[in-house]
Amino acid sequence: MEYVILGIVLAGVLLLAGLGLLVPRIRRRAVPPAPPRPTETTEEAGGVGILAPERPAEADVVEAPPAPTIETPAPTAGRLIRLRGRLSRSQNVFGKSLLAVLGRDRLDEDAWEEIEDSLIGADVGVEATRQIVDRLRERTRVLGTRNPTELRALLAAELVEALDPTLDRSLKVGGKPSVLLVVGVNGSGKTTTCGKIARVLIADGHSVLLGAADTFRAAASEQLATWAGRVGAEVVRGPEGADPASVAFDAVKKGVDTGVDTVLVDTAGRLQNKVGLMDELGKVKRVVEKQGPVDETLLVLDATTGQNGLEQARVFMEVVDVTGVVLTKLDGTAKGGIVIAVQRKLGIPVKLVGLGEGPDDLAPFEPAAFVDALVGTDA
Amino acid sequence: MFDTLSDRLNGIFTKLRGKGRLTDADIDATAREIRLALLEADVALPVVRAFIARIKERARGSEVSQALNPAQQVIKIVHEELVNVLGGDTRRLQLAKQPPTVIMLAGLQGSGKTTLAGKLARFLAGQGHQPLLVAADLQRPNAVTQLQVLGERAGVEVYAPEPGNGVGDPVDVARASIDHAKRVARDVVIVDTAGRLGIDQEMMAQAANIRDAVDPDEVLFVIDAMVGQDAVNTAEAFRDGVGITGVVLSKLDGDARGGAALSVREVTGQPILFASTGEKLEDFDIFHPDRMASRILGMGDVLTLIEQAEQAFDADQKEKMTAKLMGGEQFTLEDFLDQMVAMRRMGPIANVLAMMPGMGQVKDQLADLDDKHFDRVTAIIRSMTPGERVNPKIINGSRRARIANGSGVTVMDVNQLLNRFSEAQKMMKQMGGMMGLPGSRRKATKSPKNKRKGTKGGSRPRPVGGVPGGGFPGGMPGLPPGFDPSALQGDGAQGLPPGFKLPKIDFNKLRRQEGDNK
User: Fold this and answer.
1) ipTM greater than 0.85, yes or no?
2) InterPro entries recorded for this chain (chain A) (predicted)?
3) Which of A57, A374, B62, B99 is 20 to 30 A from B276 in CA distance terms?
């Protein structure tokens, strides 16, 4: 019987494929201009322009003394620098092997291959690695560099460029209220990240309301409530198995009513190939948007994730239009090179990095510091 | 993403057909591609190197078989080697002679230990054991609560003397749990520990202490199938820090290729015992090395496809469709809609297609596939009346305009769909005719003669003695009982097990015609 079913499926697939291949053509002919990608990028570019003034404002806030709460989290400024020691401890293997290569007298094919391997070993991905290394090769040829220090600087510059430091990496907060949606696959650290973001925001003088829209995993809302309790934020919860969209809606509604300036919505982890769950996520966002726009959709990406991270980012981007990535668990041996690929391919900037289990181990992402830690400047 | 290894290798080998033996140059060229495929599947670099070296060794001098082309042959070697490595000495859980058997779970944060503890408990309870879950993750907020909820769902007792959230000593909890298990006569104790990083000395020492306290019969290392190059470091750290006796691969229901499985297997030398494939407690299975090997290589995974299809199509629908196909009835837009909706449930169409062997040839077009187009087609059909769906011939100009308005497309789109559909209808009719079960009333195929179909599909001898019912057009040779995934590996290279030949031709036909339409 099974083969019949398979036969039917195949038939269906083929029919669909035939149509699917055709329809794009029709569409392309029918609607010639407006490919979706460019519009998005211009939007983003526009966003940067509009948001630019927000940055200094936030910097001011950062300098202000932390708001009195149950616990007083340290301010966020310079956190990545403070945590650089931890970052580089785990990552200096990579830096060292690169240095050994770059420090050679001659750069032969083997040396280049080793550089490639090091980047691949950091999960940068084969394609991105090749492009980066090719560009590096060309530049060394043009500049005639043989000096390891200069080479390292070139590589660092290349990596920083791949991360595009000009992108706006601040969180859009301070609306009335601004809504942050936290999404990601299972076990990437969404709930923990939510808790940490809440701390950061409270430290920076915002008032925060948490929405526990992870109604699926056992005890997820309790986990969030524990985090919230530590910083004295309020949590809106629903019963287990409730519609996450309704919980999110209630959270935002309550946020509007009580006049907090940020509502942080935690969602259940979902693998990006589960269509039903992704649809559910789309619904959460749509429902929340009934009360106003979602200001930030943060994708939580585990630094240990390999090439599948790109696929995750792509699918989440399609469904909820991700505006930023939070790279978690960077305190391990993982290098998180996948973010380079994610940013290159999809243009989603990394906004925050998680550097440990401590409540304050969340830092704003700084491309230069990240790359420095990656290639080791002061080694 | 759809660049499967087989397609790449086929590219290399097209020039090399007819050689009697694989030369070193051929092997080197293939090795490069295999390396790339493995790296893209997140197999760790050192493991890739070692693996490639072994492959080269095996491939060198191996006779070119008559049945397989060189690409197929290399793939076969790689696949066999992968299955070997992944599945070598598979074993079951080792139960202690003197109960209780103690199973300890360890892994990174977020790898799925707590969920797995619940699944394992349910699995063991189903086998007649009396498991006890021990909440020794006192680190993460509410991990204890999570385990309690899972235990309740699985109908298994949870030993949680400490509230967690940083309170209590997991080593004490673990130690006390053994006595507790003995007292209440539980024969399996599953100790859930906190997630920890390999480089966190303090936490690794704690894990070692827990291990010493409970003296586990199994230390299962839980690792996420999505993990990238770091898998090696992590596995090494856990191997050295805690000692691992088995591996569990979690989140295999995602679309990651899961190269981590190979890395971990190589580094730890310990077998992969289980695969965790979903969020529900019952989504738990023993590990299938052959499927994993195909998955890592990016070869079509027909078994998974069948499984997904079974989930997506409900029984009634299947029966209805089968009846239609067999009986040579008209294939209507209504059926088409049903199929399309069911397909959408299986995940992104491109992914589903990519699972089919041989689809690599059309990967460029696949990359363009956007599920939105399917939704658009769905919308068009939904804008038709039931009468129109059954009998599209009645759709005249004004109906077309209405349908176009109703679904927000142009009349041209509707026309295109209808034209394509009538083509598809003809095709289905032919296929239905060929699929006829012996004994079932089979209408004479009035199919317009298609030369290629005639030669390749029709004249193929029916597999004899297989399943009653012959096979898919051209003979899907006895798929259910005798279906051996390893049989696919050779064919997988060419991409097309015999049964797929006809669909492929049809597909090409479609493509060509599309070209004409353009």
Assistant:
1) no
2) AAA+_ATPase, P-loop_NTPase, Signal_recog_particl_SRP54_hlx, SR_rcpt_FtsY, SRP/SRP_N, SRP54_GTPase_dom, SRP54_N_sf
3) B99
Q: Is A365 helix (H, G, I), strand (E, B) or coil?
A: coil
For residue B27, pLDDT over 80 is answered with: no
The per-residue pLDDT for B282 is 81
Min Cα separation B38/chain A (Å): 11
CATH number of the domain encompassing residue A258: 3.40.50.300
Nearest 5°: the CA angle B455, B459, B462 is: 145
A199 in a structural domain: yes
DSSP A262-283: EEEEEE----TT-HHHHHHHHH
Q: Which of A1, A23, A192, A312 to mutate to test the interface with B (most CBs of B within 10 A)?
A: A23
B18: number of CA atoms within 13 Å, CB side?
Answer: 2
A299 in a domain, yes or no? yes
- Output Rg (C-alpha) for chain A, integer angstroms: 23
Provide the token pair at B173. Answer: 């909890």
Question: How many residue contacts between A and B have a Cβ separation below 8 Å?
Answer: 301
Chain A residue with minimum CA distance to B235: A333
At residue B111, what is the residue type? S
Interface test with B, best of A1, A15, A91 (most B CBs within 10 A): A15
Q: Is B401 annotated to bind ligand? A: no
* Coil, strand or helix at A297: strand
- Tell me the shortest Cα–Cα distance from B331 to chain A, in angstroms: 11
Going by the DSSP 8-state scheme, the letter that residue B350 receives in this structure is H
CB contact under 8 A, B255 and A22: no
Quick one: A2 exposed, middle or buried, by C-beta within 10 A (0-12, 13-18, 19+)? middle
Residue A2 touches chain B, beta carbons under 8 Å: yes
Q: Is B449's pLDDT higher than 60?
A: no
What residue has token string 């992944």?
B86
The angle that helices A148-162 and A367-375 make with each other, rounded to 10 degrees, is 140
Q: How many helices (H) and strands (E) does chain B have?
A: 24, 8
Contact A274 B469 (CB under 8 A): no
Which of helix, strand or coil describes residue A375? helix
Q: What is the pTM of this model?
A: 0.70
What angle in degrees, to the nearest 10, is found between the helix axes of A84-102 and A109-121? 160
Residue A245 lies in a domain: yes
Paired tokens of A76: 């966020």
DSSP labels for B82-110? HHHHHHTT---PPPPSSSPEEEEEEESTT
Distance CA(A88)–CA(A335), nearest Å, equals 10
Q: Do B480 and A332 touch (CB under 8 A)?
A: no
pLDDT tens by residue, A8-64: 555 555 554 444 444 444 444 433 333 333 333 333 333 333 333 333 333 333 333
The number of distinct structural domains making up chain A is 1
B114 is in an annotated binding site: yes
Contacts of A348 (CB under 8 A, 6+ apart): A299, A313, A317, A322, A323, A324, A325, A342
Full domain range(s) for residue A216: 178-322
DSSP class of A261:
S
Residue A131: Cβ within 10 Å count: 15
Q: Which of residues 238-297 of A touch B (CB under 8 A)?
A: 240, 271-276
Which residues of A fall within a CB distance of 8 Å from B233? 332-334
Please report how many Cα atoms fall inside a 13 Å half-sphere around the Cα of residue A329, on the Cβ side: 28
When CB atoms are compared, the residue of A18, A273, A331 closest to B254 is A273
The SS3 assignment for B185 reads coil
Q: Is B475 annotated as a binding residue?
A: no
Side-chain-facing half-sphere of B17: CA atoms under 13 Å: 8
